[in-house]
């Protein structure tokens, strides 16, 4: 697997590089729906497709990626990024879809880089911000190295404007800043909110909000 120093080394002559497409936004913005749409187009084009999701995401089914609108596509649930390489090397694929990519550790960046450097098209969907409004996991780095980024908006459940935040609710009230970062849920636990209607009991410290910058 590629190490940080090896990322983005010049390709050898005749090497066919792949591409990385990122679909991001808050909950209920249609990220999984767009991911499924792109993967189905690849299947229609007779390309070999493999789809992965984090094993934490068992909201609708363990063996498929499903959108809130009801669209589904078969997927392999995994818990470590390296498993993606194992499946791709064993089965072969031209297009790799990854849903809920924000749940994976930062090593997913190296796995994706290895895939695109080997000529694969990688389409990854995930939350760009966690419920606290902080950049989520590996998403900041993935957004910067992507060939194409689609940032989707949801509809604010309070005022109806464009929403970019995922409002977590506990017993109908806004979650506390220090609550666990990951809580799997849907309409019973989350709402889409605009910046004005979004609520949190404290603003994140700037150094924590952008802590990922310290590693650059």
Can you characterise this structure?
By secondary structure, the protein is α/β, with parallel strands linked by helices. It has a domain at 16-153: P-loop containing nucleotide triphosphate hydrolases (Rossmann fold). 21% of the residues lie in helices and 25% in strands. Strands 5-2-6-7-1-8 form a 6-stranded parallel sheet, with helices on both faces. The longest helix has 14 residues, at 31-44. The protein is globular and about 50 Å long. It starts with 18 loop residues before the first strand and ends in a 7-residue tail after the last helix.
Short structural summary:
The protein is α/β, with parallel strands linked by helices. The protein has helices at residues 31-44, 82-91, 108-117, 139-145, 206-209; strands at 19-25, 49-54, 64-66, 72-74, 76-78, 95-99, 121-127, 148-151, 154-155, 162-163, 165-170, 173-174, 190-193. 21% of the residues lie in helices and 25% in strands.
Topology of helices and strands:
Elements: E1 19-25, H1 31-44, E2 49-54, E3 64-66, E4 72-74, E5 76-78, H2 82-91, E6 95-99, H3 108-117, E7 121-127, H4 139-145, E8 148-151, E9 154-155, E10 162-163, E11 165-170, E12 173-174, E13 190-193, H5 206-209
Parallel strand pairs: 1-7, 1-8, 2-5, 2-6, 6-7
Antiparallel strand pairs: 3-4, 9-10, 11-12, 11-13
